Structures are given as structure tokens and as C-alpha cells.
Amino acid sequence: MTLEKRNGNVLVKTLIYIVCIFLAVLSLFPFVVMAINATRSTYQIQQHAVSLIPSTHLMDNFKVYTGKSFDPMRGFLNSLIVAIGATALTVYFSTLTAYALVAYRWKLREPFFAFILAVMMIPGIVTSIGMYQFMYRIHLTNNLLSLILPAIYAPGAVFFFRQFMLASLPLELLDSARIDGSKEFYTFNHIAMPIMKPAMATQGIFTFVYTWNNLFMPSILLTKDNMKTMPIMVAMLKGDIYKREHGAIYLGLTLTVLPLFIVYFSLSKYIIAGVALGGVKG
């Protein structure tokens, strides 16, 4: 390799690193500003909305945040229960449904998949009234199960898992397991699911973030203070425009974002492994 070619490669790598660092800083900047604003007073935020210098009003904002009619810790626990439960149901049952669409050949397989695609086109807000009426009639309003159990129905996740299985799940391996006497659920849980870890981690992140940040359906189905989730409580902090405590709002948003970072960094290794596996196969 000539010296000019080596210098050219070094220059390209340097530019790639610079661009990646710039994009990383650009992505993290709003979160840094949000965390810093959680330490500032409302007056300071109104004077200068963006600042990289922390202030000393963190405890004052925390007192405002905890001085409302709701319990933030209870809201945090409610959001955690709903997000974990909904994510687990969505990932497992959507993977199971996709497995049935890929691993088995049955007469109505293609029409069933077409029906799933058609359901994907229906906006969730269209079914919200019917969902509320259904939950009211079975007495599940003001119950966290009303937000967890519907997560079993996730056509978008089924489509995502099906596409991943078509490319990554060897049907010959499943046939070998059946020949060896493996039961169907054992084959799915111990052979198919480990192969699906990258896709499950990716969809798990998407589902957790969506469920954790969901405000519309919880605000309809949960009206009691001890049942409210974190997004509802943060929305309640806004109050009147003339009495809005911006520091407390930023503190609530910061506490709301923290679990999302934890989930992402916990599952990111599986996503990276899946990308690397795809690169090797390609």
C-alpha cells in the first residue's frame, strides 16, 4: 500500500470519527440541557432557556415536584409495571405469532398475514373509544391491566419479527429438532427465540419507550391519583400558564427519561450482535 493511499485512509477514518462524534454530541445535547434545567429555577429558565451551567435549585424543584396531589414514586412504579408488562407481552406473543407465520404451512397463512397488515393501517386513536367502552364494561378502568393486556395485540411487531425470521431462522433446524422429538413450544422457546434475540431486543426498546411515554390511553383509562403514570404526572405539572414551574417540569422529564437510557444500554449489545451477525451472513 502506497503512502498516499494510507494517508487517504487515515483521513477518511478521521472524518468518519469527527462526523460520528458530532452526531453523538448533537443527539445528547437536548438531554444534557434538560438535566441542567432540572437544577435551575423557573426565572433562570425563562431568562435563558439553554444553559450548560448547573444551578442550585434542584431541591427546590424536587419539593415542588413532590408537593403536588400525586405521588411521583407511585407514578414511577405504575409506569414501570405497565412498561415492563406490556413489553414482555408484546415481544413474546408477537414473536410467537410470527413463528406461526413462518415455521408452519397452513391454508389461511397468507390471508391471515394480509389481515395483520390491514390492521396495521388503522390508527390507534380510532379504536380508543371502543377500547375505553370495552374496558369499562369488564371493570378494568383504573386498573394497570387495562394498559398491559392489550399489548398482546401488536401487528407492527408481528410484521417486524416475521421479516427477521424469514432472513435469520433456518427451517431445517426446526425440522431437525422435531425429528429428535422436541415439542413445539420447546422448539420455539429454546431454539427459535435465542436466534431472535437481536430482533426482540430492538422491538423491546421500541415498545418500552412507546409504553413508558404513552399519555393518551392512560389519561383516559386511569383517573385515580394512585393509578396515574409518570407522563400524566408530568403533564399535570404544567398547570396554569402563569404558575408553571419550569424547573419542576424539567426535573420530571429527567426522571422520566432515565429508565429509557437504562433499557437502551442494557439491550444495545444484542442489537449490535444482530447487526454484526447480519454483516457476517451477508
What does this protein structure show overall?
- The protein folds into 2 domains: 57 residues; 171 residues, MetI-like fold.
- Helix content is 75%, strand content 0%.
- The chain is built from 14 helices and no strands.
- Helix 3 packs across helix 14 and helix 4 packs across helix 13.
- It starts with a helix and ends with a helix.
Can you tag this structure with a few keywords?
2 domains; mainly alpha; MetI-like fold; single chain; 282 residues
Helix content: over 70%
Q: Give the CA-CA distance, first to last residue.
A: 27 Å
Quick check: average pLDDT?
82
SSE order: HHHHHHHHHHHHHH
Q: Determine the CATH topology of the largest domain.
A: MetI-like fold
Structural class: mainly alpha
Tell me the count of domains. Answer: 2
Helix count, DSSP H or I runs of 4 or more residues: 14
According to CATH, the homologous superfamily of the largest domain is: MetI-like
Oligomer: single chain
Rg (CA only): 24 Å
Care to count the β-strands?
Answer: 0
> What form results from the Cα inertia axes?
flat
Uncertain segments: 276-282
CATH architecture of the largest domain: Orthogonal Bundle
Q: Strand-residue fraction?
A: under 5%
CATH class of the largest domain equals Mainly Alpha
How would you sum up the major sheet? none
Topology:
Layout: H1 3-37, H2 42-47, H3 58-66, H4 72-103, H5 109-120, H6 128-137, H7 145-148, H8 155-168, H9 171-179, H10 184-195, H11 197-213, H12 216-221, H13 230-238, H14 246-281
Summarize the structure.
With 282 residues, this protein is mainly α. The protein is built from 14 helices and no strands.
